[in-house]
UniProtKB/TrEMBL annotation:
<dbReference type="GO" id="GO:0016020">
    <property type="term" value="C:membrane"/>
</dbReference>
<keyword id="KW-1015">Disulfide bond</keyword>
<keyword id="KW-0472">Membrane</keyword>
<protein>
    <recommendedName>
        <fullName>Vitamin K epoxide reductase domain-containing protein</fullName>
    </recommendedName>
</protein>
<keyword id="KW-0874">Quinone</keyword>
<feature type="transmembrane region" description="Helical">
    <location>
        <begin position="117"/>
        <end position="140"/>
    </location>
</feature>
<keyword id="KW-0676">Redox-active center</keyword>
<keyword id="KW-1133">Transmembrane helix</keyword>
<feature type="transmembrane region" description="Helical">
    <location>
        <begin position="12"/>
        <end position="33"/>
    </location>
</feature>
<feature type="domain" description="Vitamin K epoxide reductase">
    <location>
        <begin position="7"/>
        <end position="142"/>
    </location>
</feature>
<dbReference type="InterPro" id="IPR038354">
    <property type="entry name" value="VKOR_sf"/>
</dbReference>
<keyword id="KW-0812">Transmembrane</keyword>
<dbReference type="Pfam" id="PF07884">
    <property type="entry name" value="VKOR"/>
</dbReference>
<keyword id="KW-0560">Oxidoreductase</keyword>
<dbReference type="InterPro" id="IPR012932">
    <property type="entry name" value="VKOR"/>
</dbReference>
<comment type="similarity">
    <text>Belongs to the VKOR family.</text>
</comment>
<feature type="transmembrane region" description="Helical">
    <location>
        <begin position="93"/>
        <end position="111"/>
    </location>
</feature>
Length: 144
């Protein structure tokens, strides 16, 4: 496949992954505001979505981090869509920076789960996986 075709395919995959990430973050937002326990996500010792998703680290400036994630996934999808329509260097840099920021923020949240809370949220892990996949697909599109 020629370079431009690989990049186009990568941008299409990025849009799909960002859509999936948005849905995961939306579900995490529902869990954040839910009043009862999240039985689906609480799998015992070491896996407690309620502790992670409703705890002290679950919000920034009074906004659930899952809502920030939803916004990030939308921005990434829109940038990739724009690159499909009109490939421009500045847009590619913005997409790379957005994905890099999301990856770093996900790593920070994973560290909080591991080091400070000593428990994990499977919905959050799904979001971290989406972010890592975005980075991998972007890299593949650039270096194929």
């Amino acid at each position: 496949m020629e370079k431009s075709a690989v990049r186009r395919r990568a941008y299409q995959i990025i849009i799909a992954i960002a859509a999936l990430g948005f849905l995961v973050a939306a579900y995490a937002t529902v869990l954040h505001f839910q009043t009862g326990p999240s039985t689906l996500c609480n799998l015992g010792e070491g896996f407690d979505c309620d502790k992670v998703n409703r705890g002290v680290y679950s919000e920034m400036w009074g906004v659930p981090v899952s809502v920030l994630g939803m916004a990030g996934y939308v921005i990434i999808a829109l940038l990739a869509r724009e690159l499909l329509a009109s490939p421009r260097r500045r847009l590619k840099i913005l997409l790379a920076a957005s994905i890099a920021f999301a990856l770093g923020f996900s790593a920070h949240l994973a560290w909080i789960s591991s080091a400070l809370l000593a428990t994990w949220c499977i919905v959050c892990i799904a979001s971290y996986t989406c972010t890592a996949a975005l980075a991998a697909v972007f890299a593949w599109g650039e270096w194929e």
